[in-house]
UniProtKB/TrEMBL annotation:
One of its GO terms (molecular function) is CoA-transferase activity. It holds the Pfam family CoA_transf_3. InterPro entries: CoA-transferase_III_domain (IPR050483), CoA-Trfase_fam_III (IPR003673), CoA-Trfase_III_dom3_sf (IPR044855), CoA-Trfase_III_dom_1_sf (IPR023606). This is CoA transferase. It comes from the Bacteria. Keywords: Transferase. Signal peptide: none annotated.
Length: 412
């Protein structure tokens, strides 16, 4: 192991990535950020579906659109792209060869599809007994829905998230609402990363590989957290509260004279300072509002009074005053605001990587901050098939003649 690889938490790990779209690639990108050698297998000519999910597209040095959609760029940095037709016997054999020299296989094919090619866990385990194999599907490998295709939007609804998200039914605009990003995909990618890391640790201690069965629906249900336990404890299904909180008041958005703020009062002392800052101290001494349980009970009376109070000042006036008073608050930023925020800048969340099309690609860095083995950004999201010959040559030891034959047969 080289000194450089020792500076990467996963510098000793190779990942064979057979995933596409978002959940699987998100997991693989996490592993790549931490130093793993991630080999992304893509279909010849078309590649990952998200390469074409645009506009917008990456622009080259002259400002012209390239073939790289921004969606694809979000989840694929740090990987090596190999184009390979796995529907052919030759392509399947190359996958088996790569699996023998890999630690982890990630895949998100339909249940049973890879078994037809001899590329399922049971088959590849015979090639490499300590292999860690992670399958990501909509509904998992078992159960009555296992054969269904899973899509993030559908799973957000099916898993209960949309019953909790959106404005109250009795208010204007009320009704179920999906999240602004594909949360079940992204959280499945995160849970998959954790599961792979746990399996690697187990393998390092025992020499034993294992199979990981990840499902979007499982993750969507699991991540409802306290909403699940609220229901399990009470037997009452939680309802939508919009930007309010079912258990805490006030914990929501308010309109100021020129925008909106979030006020997140977590205890009675913060509430008292909030209304004192707004010039309404009597709202803290009123028995209906003095404690959080009473504020929750009298929410519909209190919130209009607070809304009227907040409208008397500008957004920045409130933020400055509440921060000085020790009351948790914040603005609702658009992405212009986010990437100009001094805290976001100080934390290095915006990164720029050189790109083969010329110029740079603008990306968002990993939030993982590690003192010895921090994430490293050595490669931008790869062009389709950019590393095919390199991987076949360096990882599998194939000759230029063998690579030329595979190219001629359109296997790669």
């Amino acid at each position: 192991m080289t000194d450089a690889s020792l500076k990467k938490a996963l510098g000793h790990i190779r990942v064979l990535d057979l995933t596409r779209v978002l959940a699987g690639p998100w997991c693989a990108q996490n592993l790549a950020d931490l130093g793993a050698d991630v080999i992304k297998i893509e279909r010849p000519d078309t590649g990952d579906d998200t390469r074409h999910w645009g506009p917008p597209y990456l622009k080259d040095a002259e400002g012209r659109d390239t073939a790289e959609a921004a969606y694809y760029l979000a989840a694929n940095r740090g990987k090596r792209s190999v184009t390979l037709d796995i529907a052919t016997p030759e392509g399947q054999e190359i996958i088996r060869q790569l699996a023998r020299v890999s630690d982890v296989v990630l895949e998100n094919y339909k249940v049973g599809q890879l078994k037809k090619y001899g590329l399922d866990y049971a088959s590849l385990r015979r090639e490499k007994p300590d292999l860690i194999y992670c399958s990501i599907t909509g509904f998992g490998q078992t159960g009555p829905y296992a054969q269904r295709a899973g899509y993030d939007f559908i799973v957000q609804g099916m898993g209960g998230f949309m019953s909790l998200t959106g404005e109250r039914d009795d208010l204007p605009g009320g009704g179920p609402q999906k999240a602004g990003v594909a949360i079940s995909d992204l959280m499945t990618g995160m849970y998959s990363t954790i599961a792979v890391m746990a399996a690697l640790t187990h393998r390092d201690r025992t020499g034993e590989g294992q199979y990981i069965d990840m499902a979007l629906l499982d993750v969507q249900v699991a991540m409802l957290a306290n909403m699940n336990t609220n229901y399990l404890a009470s037997g009452n299904a939680p309802r939508r509260w919009g930007n309010a909180h079912p258990n805490i008041v006030p914990y929501q958005t308010f309109a100021t004279s020129d925008g909106h703020i979030i006020v997140a009062v977590g205890n009675d002392g913060q509430y008292r300072r909030f209304v004192e800052t707004g010039g309404r101290p009597e709202l803290a001494t009123d028995d209906r509002f003095a404690t959080n349980p009473m504020r929750v009970r009298h929410r519909d009376t209190l919130v209009p009074l607070l809304a009227e109070m907040v409208k008397t000042k500008s957004r920045q006036e409130w933020i400055d005053a509440l921060e000085m008073a020790g009351v948790p608050c914040g603005p609702i930023n658009n992405l212009d605001d986010v990437f100009e925020n001094p805290q976001v800048e100080a934390r290095g969340l915006r990164i720029d990587l050189p790109h083969p099309h010329g110029g740079t690609v603008k990306l968002v860095g990993s939030p993982m901050k590690m003192s010895v083995t921090p994430p490293q950004y050595e490669m931008p999201p790869p062009l389709l098939g950019e590393h095919t010959a390199e991987v076949l040559r360096e990882v599998l030891g194939k000759s230029e003649e063998e690579i030329a034959v595979l190219t001629g047969k359109r296997i790669i």
